[in-house]
Amino acid sequence: MKQYVAAMDIGTSGCKSIIVDDEGQVVSSVIEEYPLYSPKPGWNEQDPMDWWVGAYTSLHKAIDKSGIDAGNIKSLSFSGQMHGLVAMDKDGNVIRRAFLWNDQRCAKQCQELLQDLGGFEELRRFTNNNMLPGYQGGKILWLREVEPENYQKMKKAILPKDYLRYQLTGEYCTDASDASGTGFFDVEKREHSWELLDRLNIPRDLFPPVVESSEVTGVVTKEAAELTGLKPGTPVVGGGGDSVIQTTGMGLIREGILGLTLGTGGIVAMGMSQYIENHDQTLQFFCNNQKDLYHVMGVMLACGGSYQWYRNTFCKGEMAEAKAQGLDPYDILNQGAEASSPGSRGLIYLPYLSGERAPYTDPNLRGCFIGMTQSHCKGDITRSVMEGIGYGMKQIGEAILQLKPVPLDRIIVSGGGSRSNLWRQILSDIFQLPVYTVSGAKEGGAYGACLVGGVGAGIWKDLDDACSTMKVMTENLPNPDNKAVYEEMYHIYSDMVPTLKNQFDRLSVI
């Protein structure tokens, strides 16, 4: 008899629930959307109850859609948007709308924290990471300063996916990968940084116990079972933060594999087998979903977002043509880019439309095309956008390898951009490595959550066993004929920010 695992992926726009069988095949997937609130510029909030309604509704629909007996679902796990703050009172009620990962209101508190501690290196001693405004820690400091009455009411500070866990099981708990992104977590010890919390006079008991991603944290209550369609007593497994667990769903469970996520933003990530002191303020060093592995990543702010901006701004004709023919506009754009040549005939695109986070953390950086002449055509410009993102990802990959030089043998890509064969080939040629897509990765963090949930339920003995069910969907091998031109273009690209930094700073105040 087949066995199944279920997962909830609590994203910014909606909750996806999926069901996967014991051969790693997705049998059902449903998304329920919910609203985002932005009461002021830079403020982003959601109502945790909206998450819960979206979660139980999508899971119930996924079970109904699959046609399987819910008794054969052996566990439920989670992927969740990271860094958010859900403030809970002593009775388990939400005090206010949750602060999200992209809420920037606590920039002042983060800067003051660094100053009070004596700089990044002192903070790094506790957490091995910088304190970014998106992190939960800065939000707690903001709440203490700006909404002291709510801070006093708060008895638990939990992460978004762990609110779903509480609703399902009545238990407070988090996992090491998600907790790594709070800014108050000792990644080396895989526990909260009690020393840092004491130094900041923040109560230790605000924070829930920490488990590994594949550990069972409780069981589904009778009340939650009625809402979700699960059976009471179904084990609920730790899960993980979305930026980490989506790479587990790509098979990044050992060193030597680089993962590239081509979403609106871009992520470059790799697993590391040992703890390394992270002196690079642009990289994030987190716990992996595998107990003896760490997760290092850098984030590019405008990856697929660059291509989308280019399409929407300069390609109205192609969009109209695609609509008339029932095609994807990107397919038409890719055809034009394919007609260009590697290096876009000397044209470079810098993808800094929103500033940048890695390999430079600088809000003043700007996007631009450099090297344009009368001989360039639209296909060259299109291709340069794809290549510029590839060069930026290579920079982040090299920064990761500076922490620990290891030989890379492959790249696995996911996200909407990975559907483009041309873009995959460009990445393969820039990195001079084979590039693969794998089954399940299109489901994002939800698929990785199913894998850790299956390990927790005993369906697979470990994540190696779970990932062995994955199938290679596409393969792109590097073309050695393109190596020289891409190496030269990459070196020119890498010189651009140091050369233009002063000009970008001057433009930022106009």
UniProtKB/TrEMBL annotation:
Carbohydrate kinase FGGY C-terminal domain residues: 260-456
Database matches in CDD domains: ASKHA_NBD_FGGY_EcXK-like (cd07808)
Signal peptide: none
Residues that coordinate or bind substrate: M82, H83
Molecular function (Gene Ontology), one example: D-xylulokinase activity
Domain Carbohydrate kinase FGGY N-terminal, residue spans: 4-246
GO biological process, one term: D-xylose metabolic process
UniProt superkingdom: Bacteria
Pfam families on file: FGGY_C, FGGY_N
Keywords from the UniProt entry: ATP-binding, Carbohydrate metabolism, Kinase, Nucleotide-binding, Transferase, Xylose metabolism
Membrane-crossing residue ranges in chain numbering: none
Major enzyme class: transferase
Catalytic activity reported: D-xylulose + ATP = D-xylulose 5-phosphate + ADP + H(+)
Active site (record annotation): D242 (proton acceptor)
EC number, as in UniProt: 2.7.1.17
Function of the molecule: Catalyzes the phosphorylation of D-xylulose to D-xylulose 5-phosphate.
UniProt family annotation: Belongs to the FGGY kinase family.
Official protein name in the record: Xylulose kinase
Organism: Clostridium scindens (strain ATCC 35704 / DSM 5676 / VPI 13733 / 19)
